[in-house]
Structures are given as structure tokens and as C-alpha cells.
User: Fold XRE family transcriptional regulator from Streptomyces griseofuscus.
Amino acid sequence: MQQGGLARSEFLDVRRLAVRTALPEDVVDILLRGGQPPAETVNERVRSRIKALANDRLARTGQRMSDLAGAISRQLGVSAFWARQVCAGDKVPSVELLHGLVDFFGVDGGEAFFTASADEALDRELRSLLSARSTPEVRAVLPSAPPGRDDVRGLALRQARDLPEQRWNVLNATLKALLELDDQEGDR
Assistant:
């Protein structure tokens, strides 16, 4: 099914979202179903996301870990041993080196890519996908909710994953009608 230029299966594909957020697939699946992922510390987040990015890079390029560690070593001016430990998830980099890893892996969101909670990471990616593939009307509603209001859009999108097709169509039509109403009120 395709709505507003988005194929629902592509937009909410667990594997694709896991790769783009460096989150485990089971965590993405839990979040898309509206659940809470297991608790983790910031250090655990940083280690697991760097490890996920490293493993993804190795799988895509066919490189060996020693090649990846060598490239990080040269770019960041650290030892290859340290780079290997960081890529394996055994060490947590300093803030300065984390900044270098943002550039090395080319991730969006700066250091927050590594430190954000799982739900924040997934929401950031969903918003990015919506923004990149939607109409100007939909992009206009993506900024944060007004002060003092709860922003439930990310949770709502995650929960919409398992809606039956008929309800997905109703949700899509409702959103479209609200956006059109907002446009009409804006023209007055």
C-alpha cells in the first residue's frame, strides 16, 4: 500500500530502520508496536550503536575489522587497538573522539545519534523519512509540538504500523483532511 508517496512497508520496515538508527531489530519492533525497550545506560547506547555501525560497514564492504580499525586510527589519530575495541563495543570513546566517529560513519544528528534514547533515535529517523518524502503540508507539521503540549506523533506513527488496511486508510484520510482544513484556515 502507498500513501502520500510512502510505501507503508518501506516506511516501517524494521530491518531498514534498525540499520539507519543503529538499534537492534527487536528494539525497533518493540517501539513500532508502542512498547518500551529494555533500559540501558548512555555508555551502553554509545557502545552498541558504534558496534552496529561497524558491523554494518563490515557487512556492506566486505572489509575486515583490522581494515576498519586502521581507517579509524588514521582518521582520528588513535591506535588501531583502541579503534578495534571501540568498534567491538568494548570501549566508550571520549566526547571528542565520538565527534570524530560521527564524521567517520557519516551519521546525522551529531553525537546525539549515539546517545539518544531508543525512542528518540527512532522518532528522529521517522521524522526524517517523513520530511524527505512528504508534501510541504506534512513537513509543516513535523516541528515540535507547541510548548506545554505532549507530542504523540512519533508514538502514533509507531503504533499505526499494525493497523489493518481499512484503519490505515481512515488515519490517512483524517490527516489529509486536517491538513487541508489548516491550509484553508491559513488562506483566510
About this structure: The first helix runs from residue 8 to 11. The chain has two domains: 8-133, 149-186. Residues 2 and 8 are 6 Å apart (CA to CA).
